[in-house]
């Protein structure tokens, strides 16, 4: 460990490995598409009160445009979430994750900012680096891991990710201070690649696996992966989720993960087919929010629309005026709201909204 290299506390590491719900934090704007600080704070309060084990800020759901020089919101948005977390004075471990992207220079700069604001880990995106070799990507990861704990990110190609080899993930897992990997290729073959690569690594017990596969959240959390290695049989689980999907109905997502954890402890007992049905319900609801029908064009406004209905956002505005709900998406959200009332946490939000708003509005 280098002197300047930050690490997770033992409590944070234990919580990360046990499994957490980590919402990808949205960006609250007003009708002029400027930061709505009150509602930005309100969202963080909601995630903390819901029992989330962390938040990821500056990620896709926070809108990459926050980095544009004319917008310049990256540091401010990260600071607000850090302040709210500090004010909450939580007794449980909580992990603040900063989204980090770009070439080495940009990634190092963003790591410095987030580390300075007390963030615990970097979710390192490989997006937008198509011309880079896998070796280049590994060198970049090592550079950031020298500064702070890194969460790897396998992003699906349809939204800017790329295919990465089994050998890449094997080498990635060997990097000191890589603490987790968010697996989100939306592809079973590539998901298995990552898990198998980590299982074959000497650091397998130091890396927690998280799902970002919005199309298969519950099955990811319920599955034990088992591989034969030189040392014998190695088992690994995807223990939690770092998801845009968890940015809505978060209180219910936390309850769901707790249920899954209880199930995991009952080794050998048969899994009820009801879990497979629930997986489909969650995936169906996700399709309405994330808009795969239009290549995910409405995924951020879809999250905003649910939060707006609950009173957690004033509107669905994005920094890019072109980014709005797709044709028929609002009707799809209406449908899943009616069809799966057990998935949303409207009652929980209604119970606390006035209090959260009052606190978020205080100077």
Q: How many angstroms does the end-to-end distance come to?
A: 40 Å
Helix content percent band: 40-55%
Oligomer: single chain
> With helices defined by DSSP (H or I, 4 residues minimum), what is the helix count?
13
Q: So what's the overall shape? A: globular
Low-pLDDT sequence parts:
none
Task: List its salient traits.
9-stranded mixed beta sheet, about 375 residues, 13 helices, single chain, 9 strands, alpha/beta
Structure description:
- The chain is of the alpha/beta class.
- The chain has helices spanning 10-18, 37-49, 74-88, 104-116, 134-145, 166-173, 188-199, 217-222, 250-265, 274-290, 299-310, 329-339, 346-361; strands spanning 21-23, 54-57, 95-100, 121-124, 150-155, 178-184, 208-211, 224-229, 232-243.
- The model has no long low-confidence stretch (mean pLDDT 95).
Task: Give a quick summary of the entry.
The chain is of the alpha/beta class and 363 residues long.
What order do the helices and strands come in, and which of them pair?
Blueprint: H1 10-18, E1 21-23, H2 37-49, E2 54-57, H3 74-88, E3 95-100, H4 104-116, E4 121-124, H5 134-145, E5 150-155, H6 166-173, E6 178-184, H7 188-199, E7 208-211, H8 217-222, E8 224-229, E9 232-243, H9 250-265, H10 274-290, H11 299-310, H12 329-339, H13 346-361
Parallel strand pairs: 1-9, 2-3, 3-4, 4-5, 5-6, 6-7, 7-9
Antiparallel strand pairs: 8-9
């Amino acid at each position: 460990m280098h002197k300047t290299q930050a690490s997770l506390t033992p409590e944070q590491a234990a919580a990360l490995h046990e499994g957490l719900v980590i919402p990808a934090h949205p960006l609250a704007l007003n009708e002029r598409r400027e930061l709505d600080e009150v509602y930005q704070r309100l969202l963080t309060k909601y995630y903390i009160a819901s029992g989330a084990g962390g938040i990821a800020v500056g990620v896709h759901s926070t809108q990459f445009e926050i980095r544009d020089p004319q917008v310049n919101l990256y540091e401010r948005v990260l600071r607000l979430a850090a302040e709210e977390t500090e004010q909450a004075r939580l007794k449980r471990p909580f992990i603040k994750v900063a989204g980090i992207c770009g070439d080495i220079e940009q990634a190092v700069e963003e790591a410095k900012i987030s580390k300075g604001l007390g963030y615990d880990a970097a979710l390192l995106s490989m997006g937008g680096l198509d011309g880079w070799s896998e070796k280049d990507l590994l060198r970049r990861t090592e550079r950031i891991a020298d500064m702070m704990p890194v969460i790897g990110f396998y992003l699906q190609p349809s939204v800017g990710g790329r295919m990465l080899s089994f050998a890449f993930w094997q080498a990635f897992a060997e990097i000191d201070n890589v603490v987790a990997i968010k697996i989100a290729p939306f592809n079973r073959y590539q998901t298995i690649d990552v898990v198998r690569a980590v299982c074959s690594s000497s650091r397998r017990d130091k890396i927690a696996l998280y799902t970002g596969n919005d199309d298969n959240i519950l099955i990811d959390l319920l599955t034990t992966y088992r591989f034969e290695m030189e040392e014998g049989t190695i088992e690994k689980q995807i223990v939690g989720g770092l998801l845009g999907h968890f940015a809505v109905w978060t209180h219910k997502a936390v309850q769901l993960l707790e249920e899954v954890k209880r199930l995991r402890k009952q080794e050998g007992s048969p899994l009820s087919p009801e879990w497979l049905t629930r997986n489909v319900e969650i995936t169906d609801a996700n399709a309405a929010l994330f808009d795969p029908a239009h290549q995910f064009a409405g995924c951020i406004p879809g999250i905003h629309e649910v939060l707006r209905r609950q009173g957690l956002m004033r509107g669905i505005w994005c920094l890019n005026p072109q980014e709005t709900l797709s044709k028929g998406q609002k009707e799809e959200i209406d449908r899943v709201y009616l069809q799966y009332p057990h998935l949303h946490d409207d009652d929980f939000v209604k119970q606390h909204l006035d209090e959260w708003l009052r606190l978020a509005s205080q100077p």
